[in-house]
Design a protein that fits this description.
Helices cover 37% and strands 22% of the residues. By secondary structure, it is an alpha/beta fold. The chain folds into three domains: 5-82 and 215-297 and 409-477, 3-Layer(bba) Sandwich (FAD/NAD(P)-binding domain), CATH 3.50.50.60; 101-207, no CATH class; 301-405, Polyamine Oxidase, Chain A, domain 2 (Alpha-Beta Complex). The strands form four sheets. Strands 1, 2, 9, 10, 11, 12 and 18 form a seven-stranded mixed sheet that branches. Helix 1 (14-25) links the parallel strand 1 and strand 2 (30-34).
């Protein structure tokens, strides 16, 4: 039986579009279904409000993978700019450079508090918690209890809406592996005395100093990618939600049904299905019901919303974003969109700041009226002191569901159970990307999972284990944009499946 398409792809985010681009470039037929009626790019899309452009969460472009850097340049060859990376922490009415500047931190904390932090760090090194299982335990081992409470606890619990004792150590190992007080202090001292760290030395992923960025938003890349997919013969159908999928007995083809906002259904067959949809949505659509559906439903997600404040302000600051560790405000992070790219803010003398609030879909923040959220944001930005509330002239609110897969104490067992079920009972169904794998991947990692999946499909064999992508944190980020590092490095070749 001849399928309608060689591959059907669920989701037009970075992973889904990367797969579609590479498959159609290789001459394969591919259909992408995307639930959003207008935007491609998933969480990497860019919102547009009266020509003010802003990211959904902020997306820096860097990678140690030559394949990923080459693909960016192939899709969007003329529109990347190099941007300085600057972030600060707001804590106790003071700003701290991030990465850490040792002298600034000493001055802000004071000699007494700094001494207590060093004693706490020394105690943690003398008496580490063996086999650290939680985020709290992992960070305490690396930094000491006191620095954990100052620079990790409040912000992390804002992001995840749960205690650091409930968050798996996997989260810390994946996102801040390699960073310790010693490495941070060394980095701070080299910056203070020599301006930059030793050339050619190891670079910790949280200490990057510059990155590449599409001139007019990350969405530029994915909009260009979508156009090229269509030019290569692929199809992208917007505003279509996954309804059902099943594997036919005759020929083993997948049958996938999607539904639009009016309730109209379409069904297509394909040899392969690639899914970047949240695991819970995918498993809920499979017929007959998978035995691991219970595990899929146990996976949790964190949502967030951005309040973009447009202001006529004389204050200017160079940060890409500021992490808000102060527990007196609800905002978790503030983006300064002009510092990502001047082209995101169309008017001179204006600034556009994005206040990010982490929440759960359906809770009080998520359901609050936009006007109420704008007033909250104006009050908190004034309290922080980045701009004054009376300088705000306009605002809008954007909500993003399932922004972050939650790493609780049971997530790994649940994901592993789903993986085993799919491998045994649902051949040619491939999980890719952040939500597709319930793995907090960066954009380049999501792309790499799709690229390796395409290699497996084209070769007809499972040569590459995509679950290895991002297991080694040294792959995460280079000291600058990552481009030159990638050009010098070997191509990423994950462990082959035995």
């Amino acid at each position: 039986m001849t399928p309608d398409f060689d591959t059907l792809i669920i989701g037009a985010g970075p992973a889904g579009l990367t797969a579609a681009y590479q498959l159609t470039k290789a001459g394969q037929s591919a259909l992408v279904i995307e639930q959003d009626p207008s935007f491609v790019g998933g969480i990497s899309r860019t919102a547009n409000y009266k020509d003010y452009l802003f990211d959904i969460g902020g997306h820096r472009f860097f990678s140690k993978s030559k394949e990923v850097v080459d693909l960016w340049d192939e899709i969007l060859p003329d529109d990347f700019i190099e941007r300085p990376r600057l972030s600060r922490i707001f804590y106790g009415d003071k700003f701290y450079s991030y990465p850490l500047n040792g002298f600034e931190a000493l001055r802000n904390l004071g000699l007494f508090e700094s001494a207590l932090c060093m004693l706490s760090y020394g105690y943690a090194k003398l008496r580490p918690i063996r086999d650290a299982k939680t985020f709290h335990q992992w960070v305490r081992n690396q930094f000491g209890e006191r620095l954990f409470s100052i620079f990790f606890k409040t912000y992390t619990e804002k992001v995840w809406g749960m205690s650091c004792d409930e968050i798996s150590a996997d989260w810390a190992a994946q996102r801040i592996k390699g960073l310790s007080l010693g490495s941070a202090v060394y980095h701070a001292l080299t910056r203070s005395f020599r301006g930059k760290p030793r050339a050619g030395g190891p670079v910790i992923k949280t200490l990057i100093e510059s990155f590449r960025y599409p001139r007019k938003r990350p969405g530029m890349l994915w909009e260009a990618c979508a156009r090229k997919v269509v030019a290569q013969g692929g199809e992208i159908r917007m505003g279509r939600r996954l309804a059902r999928l099943s594997r036919e007995a005759n020929g083993g083809l997948w049958s996938v049904t999607s539904i639009d906002a009016n309730g109209s259904e379409e069904t297509h067959t394909a040899r392969h299905v690639i899914s970047s949809a949240p695991i819970v949505e995918l498993m809920g659509a499979i017929k007959p019901t998978p035995i691991s559906l219970f595990n899929a439903r146990a996976l949790k997600y964190r949502d967030f919303l951005t309040v973009a404040l447009i202001a006529r302000s004389k204050k200017d600051f160079p940060d890409n974003w500021v992490y808000i560790h102060d527990p007196s405000v609800k905002v978790g992070r503030v983006q300064n969109f002009r510092s990502w790219s001047p082209d995101l803010v169309p008017q001179e003398g204006m600034t556009c700041l994005g206040l990010e609030y982490f929440c759960f879909e359906g809770d009080g923040l998520w359901n609050a009226p936009d006007a109420e959220l704008v007033e909250l944001a104006k009050k908190e930005i004034d309290q922080i002191g980045l701009i004054s509330a009376d300088e705000v002239v306009d605002a809008c609110v954007v909500r993003q569901a399932k922004a972050y897969p939650v790493y609780d104490d049971s997530y790994r067992d649940n994901v592993d159970t789903v993986r085993r079920d799919l491998a045994l009972n649902f051949p040619n169904l491939h999980l890719v990307g952040r939500n597709g794998m319930h793995k907090y991947n960066n954009q380049d990692h999501a792309m790499m999972t799709a690229m390796l999946t395409v290699r497996n499909i084209l070769s007809g064999e499972e040569h590459y284990d995509i679950w290895d992508v991002n297991e080694d944190a040294e792959y995460h980020e280079a000291g600058t944009s990552g481009e030159q590092e990638a050009l010098r490095s070997e191509r990423l070749v994950p462990r082959k499946v035995a």
